[in-house]
C-alpha cells in the first residue's frame, strides 16, 4: 500500500511540475547578473530582459550578485529551484572559471541547463584620460617602464576584464598591479576619476566614454575595427595579435529545469534578439545579437564545452589561478 501511495505522490508531483511547465511563466522571473549593476553584463541583460518580458508577458527582474569574477552569482543560480524562475546571464567567465577556480560551488558542465547564446562583445584597452601614452605601443613601453606602479582594473579572477588583462600582460611579458572590483561598472567610475590607470573592458561599457573623450582608447580586441570606434586600431594592427578575444554571453537555468521551460525561454530569447531596440542599442555599443541558431540550448552547450577546452591550456600557461 505504501509503495502505491509513494508512486501516486511522485506521479502527482510530476504532473504538477509538467502542468506548471506548460503554463510557464506564471509569475516574475529573476535573471541573475554575476557582476555589479551598471557594467557591461548588466547593460546587456537589462536590454534582453525587457524584450523577453514583453514576449513572455511576465515581469523579469535583474538581480546583481557580484564577486569572485562572476562565480558567486553563478553559484547562486546553481542552487536555485529548477522551475524557470531563476536564470543566469553570464559570459566567457563561465568557461574560464572552470580552470581558474580549483574549488567552485557548482559543476560548470553539470549544474545548469542551457537556454542560448545572447551576444559576443569586443573588448577595448582603455586608460584614464590623462595617462601619458597616446597609442598602444606607447602604453606597452609605459607599462614596462612603470610595471610596479601601473594599475589595471578588473572584475576579479574569472571576469572578462581579468582574462583580457591576463592576455595583455602575457603578451608584453610584464605582470602589472591589478585592482579587482565586483564589476567593471564601479571600475569605470574609478578610471573616470583617475584612481586606476588602465582596463580591458567590453565595448558595451566603454564606447560612450571613449566617444565622449572621458577615457583614452588604445585598441579593440576584435579582428576588425568597430563601426562605432573607427579611429581605434585593433590589437593586431597595433602589434599585439595575441590579445584578441570576444566576450560571448549565454543564458542558463539551474540543472533540472524542464526542457519545455528552457525551450520556451530559448524561443523568447530569439524574439528578444530581433527586437528593434535591442538591435539598435547593441549596435550603438559595438556589438550585435546572436543569431537565431545560436540562441539555442545546443549552441550554448557546444560553445561552453569548446571554450573550456580552448582556454584551459592558455590559463595554465599563464599560471594565474584563484586561490
Ligand atoms: C561586468 O559586467 O562587470 C563585466 O562583465 C565584468 C567583467 O567580466 O569584466
TrEMBL record:
It comes from the Bacteria. Keywords: Signal. Residues 1-23 form the signal peptide. Pfam families: TctC. InterPro entries: BUG, Bug_dom1. The keyword Glycosyltransferase does not apply. Belongs to the UPF0065 (bug) family. This is Tripartite tricarboxylate transporter substrate binding protein BugD. It comes from Mesorhizobium ventifaucium.
Amino acid at each position: 500500500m505504501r509503495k502505491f501511495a509513494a508512486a501516486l505522490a511522485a506521479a502527482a508531483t510530476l504532473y504538477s511540475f509538467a502542468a506548471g511547465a506548460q503554463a510557464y511563466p506564471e509569475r516574475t522571473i529573476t535573471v541573475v547578473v554575476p557582476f555589479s549593476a551598471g557594467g557591461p553584463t548588466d547593460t546587456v541583460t537589462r536590454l534582453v530582459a525587457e524584450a523577453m518580458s514583453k514576449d513572455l508577458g511576465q515581469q523579469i527582474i535583474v538581480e546583481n550578485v557580484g564577486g569572485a569574477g562572476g562565480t558567486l552569482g553563478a553559484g547562486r543560480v546553481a542552487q536555485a529551484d529548477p522551475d524557470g524562475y531563476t536564470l543566469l546571464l553570464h559570459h566567457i567567465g563561465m568557461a574560464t572559471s572552470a580552470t581558474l577556480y580549483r574549488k567552485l560551488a557548482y559543476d560548470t558542465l553539470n549544474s545548469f541547463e542551457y537556454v542560448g547564446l545572447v551576444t559576443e562583445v569586443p573588448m577595448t584597452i582603455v586608460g584614464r584620460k590623462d595617462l601619458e601614452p597616446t597609442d598602444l605601443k606607447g602604453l606597452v613601453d609605459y607599462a614596462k617602464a612603470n610595471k610596479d606602479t601601473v594599475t589595471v582594473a578588473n572584475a576579479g579572477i574569472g571576469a572578462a576584464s581579468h582574462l583580457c588583462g591576463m592576455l595583455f600582460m602575457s603578451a608584453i611579458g610584464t605582470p602589472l598591479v591589478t585592482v579587482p572590483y565586483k564589476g567593471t561598472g564601479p571600475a569605470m567610475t574609478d578610471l573616470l576619476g583617475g584612481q586606476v590607470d588602465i582596463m580591458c573592458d567590453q565595448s558595451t561599457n566603454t564606447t560612450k566614454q571613449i566617444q565622449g573623450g572621458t577615457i583614452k582608447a588604445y585598441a579593440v580586441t576584435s579582428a576588425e575595427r568597430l563601426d562605432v570606434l573607427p579611429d581605434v586600431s585593433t590589437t593586431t594592427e597595433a602589434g599585439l595579435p595575441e590579445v584578441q578575444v570576444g566576450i560571448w554571453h549565454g543564458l542558463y537555468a539551474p540543472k533540472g529545469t524542464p526542457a519545455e521551460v528552457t525551450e520556451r525561454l530559448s524561443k523568447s530569447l530569439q524574439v528578444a534578439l530581433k527586437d528593434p531596440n535591442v538591435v539598435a542599442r547593441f549596435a550603438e555599443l559595438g556589438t550585435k545579437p546572436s543569431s537565431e541558431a545560436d540562441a539555442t540550448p545546443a549552441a550554448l552547450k557546444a560553445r561552453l564545452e569548446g571554450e573550456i577546452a580552448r582556454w584551459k591550456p592558455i590559463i595554465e600557461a599563464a599560471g594565474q589561478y584563484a586561490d
